[in-house]
Amino acid sequence: MTESFPPPPAGGCSATPVLKQRGQHEVFCGLTGIVWLHRKMQDAFFLVVGSRTCAHLLQSAAGVMIFAEPRFATAILEETDLAGLKDAQEELDRVVHDLLARRPDIRQLFLVGSCPSEVIKLDLAKSAERLSAAHAPHVRVLSYSGSGIETTFTEGEDACLAAMVPELPATTERELVLVGALPDVVEAQALDLLERIGVGPVRVLPAPRADSGLGIGPNTVFALTQPFLGDTLGALERRGARHIPAPIPVGEEGTTLWLKAVAAEFGIGPDVVDRVTEAPRARARRAVRQAAEVLSGRSLFLFPDSQLEIPLARFLTRECGMHAVEVGTPFLHRQILGPDLELLAPGPTLSEGQDVDLQLARLREARPDLTVCGLGLANPLEAEGLTTKWAIELVFTPVHFYEQAGDLAGLFSRPLRRRDALKVGAA
């Protein structure tokens, strides 16, 4: 089958110097990850220990209707708690006891800190250990930080999964684990492709239920489906599991190389992958081609936001014909992003971290055709005549694997089509 993408550039961006940015940053906090994680784990509950502001954020972000029975809530810290006038541990124990008595379906309870422990005056790790012992074996209580002071919004998922790994049972079975929360329809597509290729047994993290049978051990191999899972990767390796390096599976090229890397680990040749994926690859190519008519030749600037920026730049430059001016990412984890960096042609500035004023200055000098950024920057930049794409939409929209490749390209082509149409109307 003929490849539809150009040959890999010699060395790619692997050796490109990275501009370290350590200034003001503008991102959502890690609590946002609860919005998609609570949908994946059907017997889990997320109890945010924080303020009313945190409660309002979750309510707004998730769009929970008044008659819904959500699987997350906020244990609101009052002034008396913060001032130490009440025993915060006793208060938290009471809230957890009442919650578990009301919701016997809960098997995993996550205590999520909305601020560092010195702010909320609670050590949630010790609280989780004590509560887990009290409610075992029916409920497992874990903790992680979703603080916007400490995390960007995708790091909430990383912190959650990393907290789960040490508690997973041990196994000696030879298994593949797909790591990273995906929409159910996308996860089903991935599992179907792997089954037809002949890879198995396959499990997923996060699993839908605590009793899914997922275990970790020295014969476990894992492949990441998201690029922002550095802490989870480290936790899995400490349990003896081995990482399969591969590009993140977005677009036709990334998905194919990801599947071939996984197949090779199980002794399956690339010809089998090509044969199994011929039809979905062709569908992906046709769908991307429609969006590429608008994207080809256009310039691109990615602000650091979700840690998806490097895989997206690889997809947009190699499959859609765009030209990247700058690719910023909150953290550049080379063990995860190395395969994507090797495919990204030299040329763009690579930046890690954020300094909004400096990045805005470079953006205004470059005047790219499309800017991918957070919500807080998008409207002001649009007022300056720049076309933008909301980065957060790339996390909430199914974008992985073949069947979503056209939708992914369409997310970037639509703002440009709209801008082109407005120019025509104005003329």
Concise description?
Protochlorophyllide reductase is composed of three subunits; BchL, BchN and BchB. Forms a heterotetramer of two BchB and two BchN subunits. It is an enzyme of class 1 (oxidoreductase). This protein is 45% helix and 16% strand.
Explain this structure.
The protein is an alpha/beta fold. The protein folds into three domains: 18-26 and 284-426, Rossmann fold; 30-151, 3-Layer(aba) Sandwich (Rossmann fold), CATH 3.40.50.1980; 175-265, Rossmann fold (3-Layer(aba) Sandwich). It is built from 17 helices and 14 strands. The protein has a six-stranded parallel β-sheet with strand order 1-12-11-10-13-14, with helices on both faces. A four-stranded parallel β-sheet has the order 3-2-4-5. Strand 6, helix 8 and strand 7 form a beta-alpha-beta unit. Helix 7 packs parallel to helix 9, helix 10 (251-265) runs antiparallel to helix 11 and helix 11 packs parallel to helix 17. The longest helix is centred in the middle third of the chain and has 26 residues, at 270-295. It starts with 17 loop residues before the first strand and ends with a helix.
Q: Mind telling me which CATH architecture of the largest domain this is?
A: 3-Layer(aba) Sandwich
Radius of gyration (CA) equals 22 Å
Number of domains: 3
Query: Percent of residues in helical segments?
Result: 40-55%
CATH topology of the largest domain: Rossmann fold
Shape type = globular
CATH superfamily of the largest domain: Nitrogenase molybdenum iron protein domain
From the helix content, strand content and strand pairing, which structural class follows? alpha/beta
Under the CATH scheme, which class of the largest domain?
Answer: Alpha Beta
Going across the major beta sheet, what is the strand order?
Answer: 1-12-11-10-13-14
Please mark out the parts with pLDDT under 50 across 5 or more consecutive residues, or reply none: 79-85
Distance between the termini: 45 Å
Q: How many separate helices?
A: 17
Give the mean pLDDT: 88
